[in-house]
């Protein structure tokens, strides 16, 4: 319900920028409505998803959920297909062949560790931090590990890169996203 009632605060610099890249990662299906609303608000020219597209379905550990993964991936395709250009870097919980089959020509599937050239800047992309660590690039985009803090970690925040000033804006995911990703809250005093 939070997703439908809470206004997403988009910085004015993002709204006024000529072009925008939106970076997301490790998206459980519970945030697909949030993503739909975010895409409508931000209107990015490029979306880069750094893997684990249906992150609540841990396909690597539960391959018997492949049918459900396919269905949820089709829903995500409908959400993300509204962007002009979509790059997907498959994660450890994804199946690349199913992504290719589902997205067909509506996404560019990129191998982890690739450096993209976008509007004159180099952008290193991967799913895991080690996929991009050490790459020579202006920006490093990844997900998978919420503890890593170098570059732009798409698990920690939704990242928006603006052009031509190349500013980075980090927006929070909805409350409960990490729980739906399977991250458990630390216990303690």
TrEMBL record:
<dbReference type="GO" id="GO:0016787">
    <property type="term" value="F:hydrolase activity"/>
</dbReference>
<dbReference type="Pfam" id="PF00149">
    <property type="entry name" value="Metallophos"/>
</dbReference>
<protein>
    <submittedName>
        <fullName>Metallophosphoesterase</fullName>
    </submittedName>
</protein>
<feature type="domain" description="Calcineurin-like phosphoesterase">
    <location>
        <begin position="20"/>
        <end position="160"/>
    </location>
</feature>
<dbReference type="InterPro" id="IPR004843">
    <property type="entry name" value="Calcineurin-like_PHP"/>
</dbReference>
<dbReference type="InterPro" id="IPR029052">
    <property type="entry name" value="Metallo-depent_PP-like"/>
</dbReference>
């Amino acid at each position: 319900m939070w997703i439908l009632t809470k206004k997403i605060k988009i910085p004015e610099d993002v709204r006024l920028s000529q072009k925008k890249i939106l970076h997301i990662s490790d998206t459980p299906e519970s945030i697909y409505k949030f993503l739909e609303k975010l895409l409508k608000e931000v209107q990015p020219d490029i979306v880069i998803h750094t893997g684990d597209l249906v992150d609540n379905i841990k396909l690597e550990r539960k391959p018997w959920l492949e049918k459900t993964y396919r269905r949820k991936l089709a829903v995500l395709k409908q959400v993300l297909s509204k962007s002009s250009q979509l790059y997907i870097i498959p994660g450890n919980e994804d199946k690349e062949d199913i992504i290719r089959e589902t997205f067909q020509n509506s996404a560019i599937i990129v191998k982890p560790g690739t450096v993209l050239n976008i509007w004159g800047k180099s952008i290193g992309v991967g799913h895991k931090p080690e996929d991009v660590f050490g790459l020579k690039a202006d920006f490093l985009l990844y997900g998978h590990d919420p503890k890593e803090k170098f570059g732009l970690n798409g698990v920690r925040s939704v990242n928006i890169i603006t052009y031509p000033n190349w500013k980075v804006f980090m927006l929070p995911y909805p409350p409960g996203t990490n729980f739906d990703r399977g991250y458990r809250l630390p216990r303690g005093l």
